[in-house]
Design a protein that fits this description.
mainly alpha, elongated, two-stranded antiparallel sheet, homodimer, binds FE2/S2 (inorganic) cluster, about 160 residues, DNA-binding
Chain lengths: ~160, ~160
DNA sequence: TTAAATACTTAGTAAATCAGTCAGGAATAG
DNA sequence: CTATTCCTGACTGATTTACTAAGTATTTAA
């Protein structure tokens, strides 16, 4: 578990997709422009997100990315784990066997805390943020500002 | 809010101090040896922890660091905030005024999530980890292994 | 009073990571 | 066919990490 601006970019982008799920696939170019993230950087991130089974790419005109699972089944922890390398646990290298087979003190202290945190972030799924009162108003505003989905019907 | 190995080091070191609170000040040399963190790196981290009022340094022989507040009043969020620079929120630079005075969509999505996370980590205080069943056994084991506090009485 | 132990400070550094560019290839709709 | 999109890989400057080195300041104990 690790949390950096990289994770922030990924979570933001995933939320953008989730918010437009009903309109159809969302292009990285749109996300790049609206959320202010470099296109090439997004491509790197989505390469990881796709390999981890969180999104599904659709090529060709009218394509883009869509969620590979319902928003209710994608947690923030999933996204961060997919994008950020897990930080290593020094001494034992994640094996947890410094102390003759069992976890040593250092390991256990951090391990316990990380588990708590991971459990917390696993409980936060994308859909929890989609239907908040103020959000949908902002989405509409932003879409208009950037002229997104102007000739797009509600997708199949 | 940001979470990296740097934060891990700080939290681990703080827990080491908290675990020996009754024995007296803990030296960075001891922490360095037992938790496997470079001494000079610890000095940098504790410089920040001290400036943020989380620990109190005691100079001279028999000195070390002790908590500046009760363990129940020091949260993991406090430690991480003290040590890790807060990550910036790109476009607006934390001001939250992209959108004509109010927070834009990008900002709001991340802001809401960060608040949830921060609230969670603020609720986790050091003392919650001190009295877990397995921990005290491990502390004793480690102290013996490194010969810590062999001629030290319970401090005033 | 001296010596040792500790906190504290600053400067420097190799390696890693971040965030991005660039250049192209592959699939698909019209 | 052509434009649009995903997709991949190589490369890069800037920053951060984690650490080393070298000192100074303060306190205790002999
Ligand atoms: S650091 Fe993992 S068991 Fe010791
Ligand atoms: S990024 Fe902060 S308000 Fe837009």
């Amino acid at each position: 578990m690790k949390l950096s601006t990289k994770g922030r970019y990924a979570v933001t982008a995933m939320m953008d997709i989730a918010l437009h799920e009903k309109v159809g696939p969302v292009t990285l170019a749109d996300i790049s422009q609206c959320q202010g993230i470099s296109l090439s950087y997004l491509e790197q991130l989505f390469s990881k997100l796709r390999r981890n089974g969180l999104v599904q790419g659709v090529r060709g005109p009218g394509g883009g990315y869509r969620l590979a699972k319902p928003a209710s089944e994608i947690s923030v922890a999933d996204i961060i784990d997919a994008v950020d390398e897990k930080m290593d646990l020094t001494k034992c290298g994640g094996k947890g066997n410094c102390d003759g087979g069992s976890k040593c003190l250092t390991h256990k202290l951090w391990y316990d805390l990380t588990c708590d945190l991971h459990r917390f972030l696993s409980g936060i799924t994308l859909d929890q943020y989609l239907n908040r009162p103020h959000i949908n108003e902002l989405v509409k505003k932003q879409d208009e500002q950037y002229g997104r989905f102007i000739n797009r019907r509600t997708a199949a």
